[in-house]
Amino acid sequence: MSEKKSPLLVVFLTVMIDLIGFGIIVPILPLYAESFGASGLKIGLLMGIFSLMQLIFLPWWGRLSDRIGRRPVFLISITGNALSLLMCGFATHYWALFAARMFAGIFSSNISVANAYVADCTAPEDRARGMGKIGAARGIGFVLGPVFGGILVQWGASAPFFGAAALAAFNLLSAARFLKESLPVRGEDFQREERSRRRMYRLVNSISGLKPLILMGIVQIVAFSMLEMSFVLFTERRLDLSAAEAGTVAAALFVYLGVVIALIQGGLIGRLTRAYGERQLVLVGLSLVSVGMLSITQTPQGSLLALLLFVGIVAMGQSLVSPSLSSLLSRATPGEHQGAVFGFYQSGLALARTIGPPVAGVLFDVHENGPYLVGGVLMCLALVGAAGVFRGSVRTVGASV
Length: 401
Fold this sequence. Notes:
Layout: H1 2-25, H2 29-34, H3 40-68, H4 70-90, H5 94-106, H6 110-121, H7 127-152, H8 159-178, H9 188-196, H10 200-206, H11 210-238, H12 243-276, H13 278-296, H14 304-331, H15 338-366, H16 370-391, H17 397-400
Helix pairs in contact: 1-6, 1-7, 1-8, 3-4, 3-5, 3-15, 4-5, 4-6, 4-8, 6-7, 6-15, 7-8, 7-12, 7-14, 11-12, 11-14, 11-15, 11-16, 12-13, 12-14, 13-14, 13-16
């Protein structure tokens, strides 16, 4: 047992450091783009291009990790992230920032590879807990990252990007030293078999139970990414803040979100899964997110307390949905295809994040409530779809293969 805990701790720390860097720039990026004269649509496109590149490249990274191992793909991803952050820091106009985020999306594969790493190192019944730890790493990133970003921005608008790049460089050195390979050595026959397989969608189509789970994940991420894109701008407008004040308050709100996510995914998800099962947690989580997003539109002008309550409901729901869906997906996938399937799944989520932010930008330019109304309705549709899917059965490898 101790042999399995050690590599999971290392990958947890690797992802956590990576997400701290991400958390440093998340509250700053919309305001940074706004300083270059970007509209809501342009800010949405800036966030969407990152996800579009993930959509294109994540399946390839996932399959590459099945072939050459998780560790080298981790190291390549961290290197690309560090370079993209430097590009952001040196940007002098919107299109340079756009190019930097495009580059970042190409090399962003850590979460899908981390999920495959967890699947390599855990038994099926422990997957939800393992996936929850990856989610907790994200939560901690959103706790610590905005705090560091708020401190660094005092030295200039580009300082958070240089700070995040330095953190990524440290992460690269530590991962190169401590992160071990989790994938068993494959023979030449496996390599030839992998090269001769049909396209990824045929692999996914051949595994029973994957398609509805992937579709469910895509729909709910479209909605959630609409919140992510517009949240800082919504806070600025609804709470009657200046741009500088909005950055500070938004950073504090992201810390709050991170604490909620870390508490649930890091400490409670294992017990909740054992008590209620992944399916029930998905249904409850989707319900909470839909209620929270629709409630955000009712935030009174200037009421930070109401915004804290409604956003907290969204965070609780998303904390249940994400690891539970990943666990169901992993349990339905044969071990030798974990990296490929998670790469495909993350590319589906990237498609969702490509669609969501530009749509949210257009809706926000019309009215600040637009992204949350449409997002809440989408979550309701995902809930109805999930209830229908779970009336049937999601096959698990241990039980059905």
